[in-house]
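Worked Example 4.2. Consider the chain below.
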Amino acid sequence: MNSQTLFPTLAPTIEWRDDTLLLLDQTRLPHEIVVEHVTDAAAVWRAIHELRVRGAPAIGVAAAYGLCVAMQDARGLPVAGFRAELERRAAWLDTARPTAVNLSWSLRRMTRRARECNAQDSAALYDALVDEARRIHEEDIALCEGIGEHGMSLIAPGNGVLTHCNAGALATTGLGTATAPIYAAHRAGIAFSVFADETRPLLQGARLTAFELQQAGVDVTLIMDGAAASIMSQGLVDLVIVGTDRVAANGDFANKIGTLGLAIAARHYGIPFYVACPSSTLDFSSATGERIEIEERSGTEVTHLAGQRVAPENIKARNPAFDVTPHELVTGFITERGIVKAPFERSLKSLFAAEGNAA
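Applying the procedure from the previous section yields the following structure tokens:
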């Protein structure tokens, strides 16, 4: 099952067609389905920075194709000039957002392909970049399928599953990460329910996760972020599955702000807490979560809702987009190769030591 089967009326999150990058503008969902034709490097940077494309895996795929778009006007340069310009433009695209490791991982992989490619001219180098971007895209779809296959065993009939933000099909180019086990279990005919946190301040849970789960026919209930612990206390949640934007070597991980509080509440109520983790989000160069840079976004996202001010004029606001959850609060990581349990530093490295982010 792919995302098009789940959502036949919804455009693909990311599409590469006739040397053109097409992105579903997620800031317009669920009210409008708008596909943006991205034509230059600046448009790629804005689309990532402004969250028109979002979710760590989708950002990685968009960055790969986006670098191809950025280099289309350089195909007439000498090979050495093309490679130098590629490095410069990749470094600039890497500044779009700091926390999701897939952005830098994808761009490093693309520039490495260009360095290792024995091309005779820049046009051939460009073709090699497009080929690598397609590989990254295909791998993302396969990673989601693997996570779904291994994670669905965690969901039993009658379970209540809680998720946060959007680690769904809209955050990837496949079934999603945290939602992949949900879709796999739903496909298998298992009857269960999902609680989706609204996810302030940009409401990715309300606008995206609740939307896509409802479209796929999953039994989903939208709740306020602040209601999650209360729902747990009532015995309605048997399992928490969240996504991640970066996982440190010891298993500390960064995810949408509010994840840490969920993990603490889940531990208090004895609820298993799992992280859906494609290998592309592993960052073995960061020993612990303290090394993960947390994106701080504009305070207006907190003081305004749907363009309307909801807070006093001139009030100070903090808007960290992510938090770091320590590995001690994690029951396990659901990866495309299986479910990983503690000790995470040893088990993650033993399973993924050769992956790109392990370098």
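The radius of gyration is 20 Å. DSSP finds twelve helices and 16 strands in the chain. Compare this with Example 4.1 before moving on.
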